[in-house]
Design a protein that fits this description.
This protein is α+β, with helices and mostly antiparallel strands and about 70 residues long. The chain has helices spanning about 55-60, 65-69; strands spanning about 10-20, 20-30, 35-40, 45-50. A hairpin with a 2-residue loop joins strand 1 (about 10-20) and strand 2. The protein is globular and about 45 Å long.
Length: about 70
């Protein structure tokens, strides 16, 4: 029997926005039911990802640096 890989911890990209060298992704990991926002600043190389409460996901996606503080 062939076993299929468990992809439940691979993030699903729910939304993405790009502009002015910034890439912001809204991610969901099914295995733990966790929502996070990933940020990559192409100008400086700064990258970070932070978990956010589901009810704050859209706000964190739109204002990730406010949540990173």
């Amino acid at each position: 029997m062939k076993r299929t890989p468990d992809n439940s911890n691979i993030p699903v990209e729910l939304d993405r926005r790009e502009g002015d060298g910034m890439l912001v992704s809204l991610l969901w990991r099914r295995a733990r039911n966790v929502v996070s926002v990933a940020v990559h600043d192409g100008r400086t190389g700064l990258e970070f990802e932070l978990e956010v409460p589901p009810h704050r996901a859209l706000d964190a996606f739109n204002h990730p640096f406010a949540y990173a503080a």
